[in-house]
Design goal:
alpha/beta; Rossmann fold; 2 domains; 18% helix; rod-shaped; binds guanosine-5'-triphosphate
Amino acid sequence: MVKFADEALIVVSSGKGGNGCIAFRREKYIPLGGPAGGDGGRGGDLVFEIRRNLRTLAHLRYKQSFKARSGGDGEGSKRFGKDGEDCVVALPPGCLIRDADTGELVRDFGLETEGRLVFLKGGNGGWGNCHFKSSTNQAPRTALPGQPGETRRLRVELNIIADIGFVGFPNAGKSSLLDYFTNARPKIAPYPFTTKIPNLGVLRVDEEQDIILADIPGIIEGASEGHGLGIRFLKHISRSAGLAFIIDLSDDAFLDSYEKLQVELDGFSPELARKGRIVIANKLDVPGARERFDELRAKYPELDILGISVHNRWGLDEVRDAFIAMVNGDAAARDAASAAGDAESVSAPLLDATGSGADGSFMTAADLTDPVYPEDDGGFGATVSLSRKRKGRKK
Ligand SMILES: Nc1nc2c(ncn2[C@@H]2O[C@H](COP(=O)(O)OP(=O)(O)OP(=O)(O)O)[C@@H](O)[C@H]2O)c(=O)[nH]1
Ligand SMILES: [Mg+2]
């Protein structure tokens, strides 16, 4: 079966800090030149970046391990190590990240379409011995190792953010409608369950506005209990501005479709079942469909049902206008809500938990708070790193 990349397990790590160096200044005519070991560089950060042109997690299927570079070690002559390069993991909008082992929600990127999150900070570099000089210890043989990076196993889940989600029984013409309105070319065929994974398409309204339409696999009675392809795909439209119910007038059960779909949506999430909707009756071109359409309208006088035929291109402009009105109405409602100050705030529980050195174990010891730097003694000559000398350097 075709698998849709909407979940991925990844292992992410930030870089280790470089080690501090123990070295002394060695120069002709300068006896007792003093410590000159540089600090290690910082390890690289692990960063998540939302990229609005990404649509799936397919790129995480081939590469699951992401590691930022370690910082370079310090060297003699007070040369500091290079900072490690950050590792950037690109994610599509609509992702949430959970801890792979506990399932705990780490971050929900919600509706953000851009942004960066420094998720794991790289380890700090260790101090070289030039920091440890004091009046009583002029030749310190102490340097600190770099702090290790962090590693976490994460589960990334994707909820596609569509503006309008199509719901309907199999074969109702959902994919045909997506094909008509957008550049997406989903498979269309006269048998149920042609669509096995959600398809997205972009309906260009004008220069300023695009509407993203989502065609999901057909829903059947009992889908909320796992019948057919189930309803797990409904999560992809759970954040949409509204739904388009598509009813097949050539299906003998056309009169009950709307109610049955509503029951299945309710089984998935009552919130989804309350979303704004447009009801569309498709296949007006088949014989007898007009009478069926009138029957349907008589059954639901409170719904403004749009009759269309994708094949004959009937009524499609009205559907387009209804889509635009629904999306813009939803945006206006959201603006009004945020103006009233009750916009949902995006929680970022981990942002402050990533601060390094929070446990106070590193570089915060009282004797290190005020490092003694050698006085400016006018440039350095050659220095020799003790650690290298011990290994036996070639002459
Ligand atoms: N007569 C007629 N047939 C149509 C119309 N629109 C779609 N169809 C046909 O209905 C069949 C199903 O269309 P799809 O677009 O694949 O339906 P779907 O809702 O995506 O179906 P699933 O993916 O299986 O859920 C295809 O054979 C289409 O050619 C229409 O307006 N009139
Ligand atoms: Mg389809």
